[in-house]
Amino acid sequence: MQVNGILESALYVADPAKSAAFYRRLFGFPILLESERLIALDVAGKNVLLLFRTGATVESFDTGDGAIPGHAGVPPTHFAFAISKEEVESWVEKLQAEGVTIESIVNWPRGATSIYFRDLDGNLAELITPGFWATY
């Protein structure tokens, strides 16, 4: 018996629609689910980025067939998307073309490169190439 990975990652945002538009503009993520509480985006066909409206998930949510326990988070948080080493410059150009400020680019000792920027809610987003973690 084993865990097969992380399926969902959650961000808490002021306006899920605006945040979804930001991530869709940069990455082209399709929308999987849209409601007043959240928007779920498909990341590379294998992960889900949940954009929860800040404060909208503090109370449990009755699905009609069980309840999702309440949860909350406060931006800014941090997360990273995996990219290939060959696409670092293309991503830098894309972010700049979209008016996204790159806060830092780090070249790690084992060969990975990270590009850091903020989303609309101040969450620290990272694009990282293989070579930092032993698993990627």
TrEMBL record:
Keyword Oxidoreductase assigned to the entry: answer is yes
Q: Quote the InterPro entries the UniProt record gives.
A: Glyas_Bleomycin-R_OHBP_Dase, Glyas_Fos-R_dOase_dom, GlyoxalaseI/FosfomycinResist, VOC_core
Q: Where is the VOC domain?
A: 5-130
Does the keyword Ribonucleoprotein belong to this entry? no
**Alphabetized GO MF terms:** dioxygenase activity
- Name the keywords, alphabetized: Dioxygenase, Oxidoreductase
SUPFAM superfamilies per UniProt: Glyoxalase/Bleomycin resistance protein/Dihydroxybiphenyl dioxygenase (SSF54593)
UniProt superkingdom: Bacteria
- Name this protein carries in UniProt: VOC domain-containing protein
Q: Which organism is it from?
A: Tuwongella immobilis
List the taxonomic lineage. Answer: Bacteria, Pseudomonadati, Planctomycetota, Planctomycetia, Gemmatales
